[in-house]
Amino acid sequence: MTELLTPKKLVVRIGLAAVLLVAVALLCSLIGPESISLKRAFAATQEQGAINPDYEIFVRVRLPRIILAAIVGAALACSGVVFQALLRNPLADPYILGISSGAGLGTIIAVISGLNWTLWGRSPIAVFAFAGALGTVWLVWFIGRITGRAHVTGLLLAGVVVNAFFSAVIMFLTSIAKSQQIHATIFWLMGNMTEEKLAVLWVGSGCILAGILTLYFISPRLNALSFGEDDARSMGINIARTQTIAFAAAAFITAMAVSLSGLIGFVGLVVPHAVRLVSGPDHRQLLPLSGIIGAIFLVAADTVARIIVAPAQLPVGVVTAIVGGPFFLVLLVKYSRKVSWVK
Amino acid sequence: MSSIIEVENLSFSYTPERTILKDLGFEVTPGTFLAIAGPNGAGKSTLLNLLCRLLKSKSGIVRIDGAAIDLYNTEELAKKVSVVRQEFVPAFEFSVVQTVMMARTPYYTQIGFETKTDTEIVNEAMEATDTAHFASRALRSLSSGERQRVFIARALAQNTPILLLDEPTSFLDLKHQVRIYDLLKTAQLEKGKTIVAVTHDINLAAQYADVALMLDGNCGYHTGKLEDVFSLAQIEKVFGVKTFAAKVGEENFFLPLGKFAKDRGIINTSNNTNKRK
Amino acid sequence: MNKWWWLLLIVLLWAALGFAIFGFQPAQKASAAPLPGEVNRIVSTAPSLTEILFAIGLGEKIVGVSNYSDYPPEAAKKKKVGTFWQPNVEAVIAAKPDLVITLGFSQQKNLAERLRRIGYNSLTLNIKKISELFDAIETIGTATDMRVEAKALVSGMRGELRNLSASAATEKKVRVLFVVQREPLRVVGRQTFVNEMIELAGGENAIGPTLHKYPPIGAEQVIACGADVIIESAMTGQDLAKQKDKAIQYWSRFKNVPAVRNGRIYVIDGDTVSRLGPRLCEGASAIARCLRPGLFAR
Lengths: 343, 277, 298
Hints:
The structure holds 3 protein chains of 3 kinds. Helices cover 34% and strands 26% of the residues of chain B. Chain B is α/β, with parallel strands linked by helices. Chain B has 3 domains: 1-80 and 160-240, Rossmann fold; 89-159, no CATH class; 241-277, no CATH class. In chain B, helix 4 (116-128) packs across helix 5. Chain C is α/β, with parallel strands linked by helices. The mean pLDDT of chain C is 84. Classes of the chains: A mainly alpha, B alpha/beta, C alpha/beta. Chains in contact: A-B, A-C.
């Protein structure tokens, strides 16, 4: 896309993508270990007292999962777009600045401490993972800020250091934990989709949509940022404010996604690139479209995870890695041939 | 007429041992073309960065259009000063028109799109820089000269009274060097813009600039009308190289001379034959 | 910045709508537990639970079992709802259960929670000790209106175990090494129900207290433990005699262990000792027979 974007074009494209999402979601809701039919599901709703298994499975098992996959996929993809823009690095993903190790640390602490309360219907693991992810990101941001001028490099280095340190702590805690706890931690970290209560989905999607809207509002500034902080500043963009807002919003929606469904990799790395190839680098378009395509990707991946070794379930992170891994390799080759790494 | 750029007692050093600028002071009248020259490391780019507030100095004052530069917020400053730097290729594939339109970002509507005015301004800027005919091409696919014109178009689209350029022709061939300077001069004369260009090319600057600022590399400087600053004596002293000065028609011309210069005779007569005002 | 106010407005509306729909506590929408008399369709997610259900006479009401529920034979004919480690929530729902009974370890507890979240009734039982087994049987009885049958089963089992341990009490305790896996070598530790069965049968675990329930041990500990008897639990479906031969061959390298010297290596049916369920007494008796062949010869 090399011409200028207009509101009309954007709305049309978003509309088409949304239609595609709905179609995919509907299709995937009909696929599963048990075969159900929509006709059966909604036909016998008049019968008093009888439980309609098709309806139950469709509405209570499949739909919540699909909605969850959609909002997590959207959050991760949008977050990936923003981190790639902020760090001016096409190989950035949402976890690059410590979110993954922070969430992991939160998880294992929650598991080991054996807490049993729930906060607004969320388990301790989810809450601690959220807190761990956000706390780590803040730490990385803080360290990066005090390194001064070379801000992007500072952030990346801080992320590497924090990741390494927290990973070591996680390994230590894992070595003293009981096997049951280890299993629970690893299982949670591999990324998993389960049925969540509608209230949880409501809050989660509200937070994530708010975050994505925030990022959309600053997407013109992200465009300018691609040319480097100096150029963007000369064009009148307040760098500090833009970076802070972008970073905070992207970290927030990622932490939300991680607390809902563990660490699912490759969505945030691969989807922005795939969409950028088709739609171009204009973030006003790249962001919303990546969100929708991210949702579609994760819904599809979750469906594959559900049925490929039925009745067992693969962790959805395995499917995204199997698809994303080769794609990432192709990206690496393509980018290493191009112009040198940007400053 | 009040100055559009005022610099008073400006000092700057990157590290305590290395002072780049000391007590620098000069003024620029609106609508003039200022060339900043000097040897490597004299602080030309540093000065430019101080003028667009990429760097902040702890002593001295910089005033843009009457107000201290620190009083502007980023957006307001971008309405007064636009900058063209030496090349930078972004991480993502933006097209020419998308790049130029980014200058209008502070003016976008609430939902983040450009208005009709913005489109007109961008078209004008692209016509002026002769970049309209490859508006849809990716920035990466252009030659250095074409790219430089795009960045100048972007700075023009910002519609600011002051245009700062850091060595705008350093990677360009002869034709494009002249075309860029023609463009800048036209912007100055037709639109009344104030052009401040850092340059290594004394001769080209001499063709186009009205006033000059020469930084001598030892925290000293000379400023004034071009003919006064670009005198043979100054140039030889500041650059520390034997130079031959000549007048070709109405244009002044300086040629640095090395050990292997072919006509040794010129060296001895150079200081006598060139009587300049 | 106009658009930010709009965003705030949207967020507030979203929150308000959320409160309106879900109330202030997104509490568990716990549907009322069915009256014990109304439980007609039961799903069990573990073979031991299936055995319990059959033992108290609920066999006909079972509509779904886990994959390896093979005892009693009628259980194998029931609809499968997934494996022990990975129950399939959709299959469970497709069976239209009134009550789903699960064990207490994390995967199954998760399943029970998920079902509860969607509005199905589930009962989660921790069965790690013999006393917990008896409690679980009674709980199931209460939940399904089969109290009498459950109590009968429990007292019957208690009686059998009492007889068993009484007969064995007078003799000296036999040191037992109970092996669950040969490579790598894993044995039963002191905090397990198998250990309880061993003690009831008049034995004593040759391994001292350990951190893990089923600790992996090395050759050193084997030699040091001085076991009088080595018992291996057979893998299901395999020829007991063949396994015994293999076992004897494996243990022959530990010549100075009393059990090996005296040829007291036994292989018994795994199911009765690995599932803490109604066949507990069978398992305990089998162990007792290994410890004192003379006393318990049948």
